Amino acid sequence: MEKAINRQKILLDHLRPPTSSDHNYEAFLSATNCAAGDSASYHRTSAFGDDVVIVAAYRSPLCKAKRGAFKDTYPDDLLAPVLKALIEKTNVNPAEVGDIVVGTVLAPGSQRARECRMAAFYAGFPETVPLRTVNRQCSSGLQAVADVAAAIKAGFYDIGIGAGLESMTTDRMDWGGSVNPKVQDFAQAQDCLLPMGVTSENVAHRFGVTREEQDQAAVESHRKAAAATATGKFRDEIVPVRTKLVDPKTGDEKPITVSVDDGIRPNATISDLAKLKPVFKKNGTTTAGNSSQLTDGAGAVLLMKRSVAVLKGLPILGVFRTFAAVGVDPAVMGIGPAVAIPAAVKAAGLELDDIDLFEINEAFASQFVYCRKKLELDPAKINVNGGAMAIGHPLGATGARCVATLLHEMKRRGKDCRFGVVSMCIGTGMGAAAVFERGDAVDELCNARTVNANGLLSKDAK
Q: Where is the Thiolase N-terminal domain positioned along the sequence (predicted)?
């Protein structure tokens, strides 16, 4: 009996956290980090299976609003196929999903929430699986992914979906209703009402981004997106959508299957773009050619606790590391990524040079060029398959789309690509960014002692 009691005391002592009186705790932590190498902060979560991983990420094709292949498609019919793909391609029981969070921007909140709930039923989810929407403007899709990751980390559930949806054909971008006259007394509040194109002009003017730089960035975006399409890169992330086209004259419906983005212009040239007139300011530099396209589309990301993914035998596409949202001057809202990216990277315990791949949303060429130059990023690491100026920017879906594009490209690159970042600017003056790690890139735990097997309750019991 005395021997058993002594064993219990030893076990309890192992569980008791060290105090300043009997251990130098700070020195212990420092020594552990040094022994573990360059990713010590990740070791516990990966070794114990309680970090958050992505096992699947898909998107619909992105199509031009009002005149593209989805102009006659209901918003819920855009979201349902990507939700269904997550379940079908992983064989996860849909009843196990703890929550579905959908980023969306333009539609009235309660209406879009109902449409998303309807889409979940179309996709085969049972009534027991809840759903909600989230709106942080252009980062709504990324915010949805971050919200799900945080909920899994908090222990609310083990499996969740972060998604995004936008039909810019269906929903208008203009302000509805009256504006509070109090806004006249607050300069920054007034700037929250600026058209996004005007903020693009402000960025170009304030930071000296030339028209030539903007047009060059647009051409590069189209060139890279066209190459990615031609080589089949997007096939890994795109879910074909069955829909219809309506003849405007006869009203006849024609069934179609959409499997490619329809806004990419492979033959775009600097000389062609130079002919376009500024849209938002006389003698300005922001044109329809060097801005993101109005787009319809959806995306979805399946996240879960690592231990659950391992138990199910699912390949890990990526690991969610950190997320940051940071406010900036609304008049130059496009600079958001230049502030948010360093914040997210720092939170991950990394430096900018550690990041191998970036997906930075190209809301406007002016802000994209500024952020690239401000952070001194290698152009070869950014938007390697093109960006929103070519593919399109379905506001609420962009974050989820970028996560899918980033993680599939990181998988293709293998060992040469360990860390990636998704980032975008946000209307009213913010930026958001998230850091991801390639799924198979976690370091081996190198600071743990090997304990020989024995039949005792504690290795210290004799």
A: 52-307
